Amino acid sequence: MEGIEHKIVDLNGINMHVAEKGEGPVVLFLHGFPELWYTWRHQITAFATLGYRAVAPDLRGYGDTDAPSSISSYTCFHIVGDLVALIQSLGVDHVFLVAHDWGAMIAWYLCLFRPDMVKAFVSLTLPFRPRNPKMKPIAGLRAFFGEEYYMCRFQEPGEIEAEIAKYGSKAVLKKILTDRKPGPPCLPKGNPFGISPDTDIKLPAWLSEEDLKYYANKYAQKGFTGGLNYYRALDLNWELTAAWTGAQVKVPVKFIVGDLDMVYTTPGTQEYVHGGGFKRDVPFLEEPVIMKGTGHFLHQERAEEINHHIHHFIKMF
């Protein structure tokens, strides 16, 4: 963590916290939920050593970046607007893009809206999701997976926040970060994360008590609402992106996922990734990498291997 610089950048109407290290071509790292710039700690130091300028912001609503109160301030256009302004603030025309989870969702939009700014994109865990013109996302998810599916449970403002508060940021984050249950995540009401005072969850080797404490402290200060508002804007994104129905993503892409990942093991994902749909929508997609025995937070769990895959791909451009 030594030598990582932290700054607050005024852009697109918000103050954004950015961590960076190194000099050279920019690699922009985008975190998911419920995470922070800190999730890229292994990549920042590694890529700075390899001769890159590694840049990892706290996205809108997270950590030390501003969190507007309105759900409508978290559309894909707002977040992509933040990233375009960030890239411009770095004094470069384009970047290598590496993103995970919700960061990858936003990264796909950046590639779709501004392909001129992306030299190549490495997506961790999340394949492209083409827009279905016949059904809004939340109605579709509810129909397929039920009301307890996590994205559906996140929709009502304040509801899941109250349930998180009941158990505390640290306990909830510990459960989410260490969970390796495959398949679509469902959160029953009452005890959505299955936390029991009698069960002591052992931290895996890749997540230290210090790491957990950093996340927990930031979420205790900021709350979870900013990150949850990305889910609450899903239907609004659908309405706003009608003009991109059927559009292809035309940047070079590498997709990497763990075979235990909750997204990869959700019905329909593997069929899309391996059945031709993904390659049709993303014509410059390289052969996907499926990492055996690996969960959702693969860039932390298998950091050295992930760094190798990223570097091997981006050095071609």
Automatic annotation (TrEMBL):
It comes from the Eukaryota. Keywords: Hydrolase. InterPro entries: AB_hydrolase_1, AB_hydrolase_fold, Epox_hydrolase-like. GO terms for molecular function: epoxide hydrolase activity. It is an enzyme of class 3 (hydrolase). Residues 25-128 form the AB hydrolase-1 domain. Belongs to the AB hydrolase superfamily. Epoxide hydrolase family. This is soluble epoxide hydrolase.
